[in-house]
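Dear colleague,

Following up on yesterday's call, I've attached the two folding results inline so they're easy to grep. Please treat them as preliminary; we haven't cross-checked anything against experimental data yet. The first protein's sequence and structure tokens come first.
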Amino acid sequence: MTPTYTLKLDASYRPIGVIPVHKGFNMVYSGRAKLLEGYHTGPTFNTVYPSVIVLKTYVSKYRLTISCNRRNVIWRDQNTCQYCGGVFSFKDLTMDHIVPKYLGGERTWTNIVASCKRCNGRKGHKTIQEFGKKPLTTPKKPAITIREYYRDIPFPENWERYI
């Protein structure tokens, strides 16, 4: 298996990102980072590819955030329609504005919920009071970890103690 990703830690050993392995290799080679863990398999024989690196001088104040889009709203709501409670596939869910757009409802984490097509069609441009159903959970901006931010990337076992 050829290594693909490197876990990047700041100078205080907090995870701040996942980068392509070649960028991690360049950071170690140029002296900007120190190798903590390595992959011992790769395209070049007898070369250790960085699995975990720590930056030498940079300390991050960066907080992970994700945008309020359909993919992330459905993930936050765990593929569950917030009106009927049904669990659906991604393609069968939509985003619903709790306060409709025509009444000034914005696309924010606290105003958007996952809704099945049927419930969204029934609610239409109605307010929660007119529709007669409140969302099952109060929508809020999710607090995320690096594992959730990079949820589509498989995390190697040797990253576990750094996360």
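Below is the second protein, in the same order (sequence, then structure):
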Amino acid sequence: MKKKLLIFGAGETATIAAEFFIVDTKESLTGFIVDDAFWKPGMEHLNLPVYPFSKIQEALPSSKYKIFIAISYSKLNRDRQKAFNAFCDLGYELISYVSSKATLWRTAEIGKNCMIFEGNNLQHNSKISDNVILWAGNHIGHGSYIAQSSYVSSHVCIAGFANIGERCFLGVNSTVIDYAKVADDCFIAASALINKNTESNSIYMGNPAEKNTKISALKYFKVKE
């Protein structure tokens, strides 16, 4: 029997994910899951039931249900990473959504719980790790790599053999040149040009981009360092 789909989250990202899965896949979406603190009896989202996280193993076992985690980049992607690890620990299958209007070369690789919007172009031997979001219209160059739990906004150009670290955020129209390495936990501002390797837990702005020395990325996102 084919497993039914549950989406973790009930906000804007979850609403968008539901639209994609309903219209652009053959998945059977049956409901949503939220943390217990946000759940109320009888709660619904998009006319589907919402379940509290603490009750899913009993009511919605991993043998019958699979999960998509629809959380944005809150706390520099740490909230999405935490949920990803929690569902993996519980033994649930986590699935990815890849738009039918995205272009993936046959050698491109995509991990679990990724959301690949329309207009993305993934070239030869590019690799997207688990739990990554690629919003619309990005170019992922040949041989490039995006590590776990990063978030790429729209119209970002990542050139060939570039390396994006874990939990990074790349703003709209930003560019990473070929062979450049963006370290873990970096916030790359909109339209920034990364033309050299970056330092972890840093904010980069401008063209060419320079490090903001006044505040770290984690402090900006109010994450305790």
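For the second protein, one point worth flagging: The chain has two domains: 4-94, 97-215.

Best wishes,
A.L.
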